Amino acid sequence: MGVFRNFINMILPPRCLKCGKVLAVQNGLCADCFKQISFISDPLCYRCGRPFADEMHLKSGIKHLCGACVKEKRPLFAMRRSAFLYDEESKKLILDFKFKDKTFAAETLANILYGAGRDIWPENPDVIIPVPVHWLRLLKRRYNQSAILVKYLSLRAAIPADYSSLIRRQNTIPQVQLTGAARRKNLQHAFAVKYPQKIRGKKIVLVDDVETTGSTLKECAKVLKKAGAAKIYALTLARTEN
Question: Per the confidence metrics, is the pTM higher than 0.70?
Fold first, then answer.
């Protein structure tokens, strides 16, 4: 297999997932592109994962909460984490994976996602679930990028994946075309739990590619909580700054 891999690499050399530069290893990022990605690291809000702009007053070893999470009386999520900021530098990486059939990037992206979930794994979650897409959209796109991420993330984290319990029952307008309240209204009743017996009492990691307003994750979390989920964690590749 090693000889065969070397032969393939001579004909089709590994390239950077972002810029296409030839690399020494498969499906990675070159040094320049890696530096351009705004990876999220401490200090950040322990609950929602939002990075703090002013870190001077933060003491290490304390689980700090942002203002929004302090005000939240009944949080849907035990914890939310993202690997990097969704900006001009990371956008191409996400969109190529999501819409341009670059599914070969999934294993590398899942490894990055695993690193982003370093605070979640010690909580011993029971199952990993991808945000589902409607079957009509699946026919058009041919794959659910979140489900592919979960395939590799499940192997890396040694946690079972569940692709069937959470379903999307409405083919809603793509969220990218909407803003604010329209996004929330668009997703009302869009999701459902098909097999509540698989959800009841479980600690669930919900996986998606990008968190913008958080409306999609929240609607999924609501139906999972209604079905009896004990705790829900959210893990995304990227999130917007706001």
Answer: yes
Q: List the structure tokens of 136.
A: 């009509």
State both tokens at 144.
């659910």
Ranges in the chain annotated CATH 3.40.50.2020: 74-239
Amino acid letter for position 95: L
Query: For the domain 74-239, what is the CATH code?
Result: 3.40.50.2020
DSSP sequence for 38-66: -B--SSB-TTT-PBPS--TTPPTTS----
Q: What letter represents residue 161's amino acid?
A: A
Distance between CA atoms of 16 and 65, rounded to whole angstroms?
Answer: 36
* pLDDT tens profile 48-71: 999 887 665 666 667 889 999 999
Inter-CA distances, 184 with 144, 153, 180, 188, 229, Å:
21, 28, 7, 7, 22
Q: How far apart are the C-alpha atoms of 237 and 220, rounded to whole Å?
A: 17
Residues in contact with 219: Cβ distance below 8 Å, sequence separation at least 6, in sequence order: 184, 187, 188, 190, 191
> 181 Cβ partners below 8 Å, 6+ apart?
none
